[in-house]
Design brief:
elongated; TIM Barrel; about 350 residues; alpha/beta; DNA polymerase, domain 1
């Protein structure tokens, strides 16, 4: 008999599954608390449930999480996990600490279909969508690694989630939405929608639905201000060009002055980093509750681009800032632990069959 994975079920689904094997509805609330508040990994650790029921739970249900294939810690505190799913596929999850918060960068797919030319994951074919269990599992593993179960919320480093890892979240919307609804549940992990950001390369038809149903913060991988260049850097632009994308952003239900849409802009030397590009970016964002996140390009083996110079990035940022748009330059993090998205997985594939000692 195949066991039901509890992680990834909604609260209502868990209640229904438990009833099928004879458990009363109130047990769902108890089990939910043990998994998502206490972080337990074994039914025998659920002390509010009678011992004679532990075996019955274990017979029908599983609390399996992804396996840690590799775990690395950078000198700057960044943590990166290469996680193996039950079917042996691997994805990456990255925790980036800041002085006042910490964000977990979560993957939504194994590989990607979008072939963005600056992105290492774009060199990998799409294998499959991650399930809600796969996505939530990344959050649980991070909480394990950071030892943040049973801590007061104000003492936790892990405060935010960004759906910016491997894959395009809006091409796996149903699983991503289900996972985020579990993560946002106030009686479990309880990360507010205001602390969750979903990044998309521009799947225009799904943007409105995301805002209405989830209400999370939106980030747009823009990276170019002209269609002919964005067609190359972010090929989905051929299907949903800049004008359509920005129209969807202007109409995003969850955006307001307090919750601005983030436009991600990777700085590529001699490609998209001129003063003219900065001025055109300002024009494009007129009328949108927006901020711009300037990202120094993080090179990976075989990458076709170089990072813009610090002076060029500073000049670009000054133009955008002077126009009234916040434009912080993202600090480069975790370069000593294969920081570029997809790079650790790629390195692991190269070393397949070799014994890796961490």
């Amino acid at each position: 008999m195949e066991k039901t994975e509890i992680i990834g079920l909604t609260r209502d689904e868990l209640t229904a599954k438990l009833k099928e094997v004879g458990f009363e509805a109130f047990r769902a609330k108890q089990i939910w608390h043990w998994i998502y508040v206490k972080g337990v990994t074994d039914f025998t650790q659920m002390t509010s449930i009678a011992k004679n029921q532990h075996a019955l739970l274990a017979e029908y249900f599983s609390l399996a999480r992804p396996k840690i294939s590799r775990a690395l810690t950078s000198v700057d505190g960044t943590r990166k996990w290469l996680l193996e799913m039950p079917d042996a596929n691997k994805v990456e999850t990255v925790f980036i600490p800041e002085t006042d918060r910490g964000a977990l960068c979560v993957s939504s797919q194994v590989g990607c279909t979008l072939t963005c030319t600056f992105c290492h994951t774009g060199t990998m074919p799409l294998v499959r969508n991650l399930t809600a269990a796969d996505i939530i599992g990344q959050v649980l593993i991070a909480r394990d690694g950071l030892e943040e179960w049973n801590k007061r919320r104000e003492d936790c480093l892990f405060t935010n989630i960004v759906m910016m890892g491997m894959g395009e979240p809006l091409y796996n919307y149903d699983n991503v939405a289900k996972a985020l609804q579990v993560i946002m549940d106030g009686e479990g992990i309880a990360i507010s929608k205001r602390r969750i950001t979903l990044s998309t390369s521009g799947v225009v038809p799904m943007i409105e639905r995301c805002g209405k149903e989830l209400g999370v913060n939106l980030a747009i991988s823009l990276h170019a201000v002209r269609d002919e260049l964005r067609d190359v850097i972010v090929p989905i632009n051929k299907k949903y060009p800049i004008a359509q994308l920005l129209k969807a952003c202007r109409e995003y239900p969850a955006a307001n002055n307090a919750r601005r849409i983030t436009f991600e802009y990777v700085m590529l030397k001699g490609v998209n980093d001129s003063d003219a590009d900065a001025r055109e970016l300002v024009k494009l964002l007129d009328g949108i509750h927006a901020k711009v996140n300037l990202i120094p390009f993080n090179p990976w083996p075989g990458a076709p681009y170089e990072c813009s110079s610090k002076n060029r990035i500073r000049a670009f940022a000054e133009i955008v800032n002077n126009a009234g748009f916040s434009s912080p330059v993202r600090a480069t993090r975790g370069q000593d632990i294969f920081a570029a998205c997809g790079q650790l997985k790629s390195d692991s594939e190269r070393k397949k069959g070799q014994k890796v000692i961490l």
